[in-house]
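[step 3/7] fold_predict: job queued, chain A
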Amino acid sequence: MTRKILCAWVIVAFMFGCIALPVRAQDAAPQPPANRPTAMYDQGLSPYGLGGEHDPPGELIIADSLIMRPLGIVACAVGLVSASIFAFPWAATSNSYDRVGRELVQKPFDYTFKRPLGDVDY
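[step 4/7] structure written:
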């Protein structure tokens, strides 16, 4: 009987925690413009500017370096393997090598290695 009561309290506490967490949420990080050109990254420029209020918060930089970059490396490997083994034979019949290479190889590479740390809205 005690175990059932304890389980019920844990479930109730979890439900209230899920409801109360959005109330304590902070403002979102400043969003860079959606129409920025990708050539900006080729020149080493950041959409956040050179300092001040437009720099990404430290939490984004840590999450980017610990989570997003390793996932980007995995995406590069998966994209390269899937492009070279699975997609290129069909791309050869439709003459769409450039599209396959851009979507499966170039975009994950740019996301992982060219964008500045903390800019997760690439």
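[step 5/7] annotate
The chain has a mean pLDDT of 76.
The two ends are 53 Å apart (CA to CA).
exit 0
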